[in-house]
Amino acid sequence: MFKKILLGLAIIIAIPFIAALFIKTDYSVTRTVTIDKPVTEVFDYIKHLKNQDNFSKWAQIDPEMVKMYRGTDATVGFVSAWASENPEVGVGEQEIVAIDEGKRIDFELRFISPFEATSPAFMTTEVVNSNQTKVDWDFNGQMAYPMNLMFLFVDFETMIGADLQQGLDTLKVILEK
Question: Which InterPro entries did the record assign (predicted)?
Answer without folding.
Answer: Polyketide_cyclase/dehydratase (IPR019587), START-like_dom_sf (IPR023393)
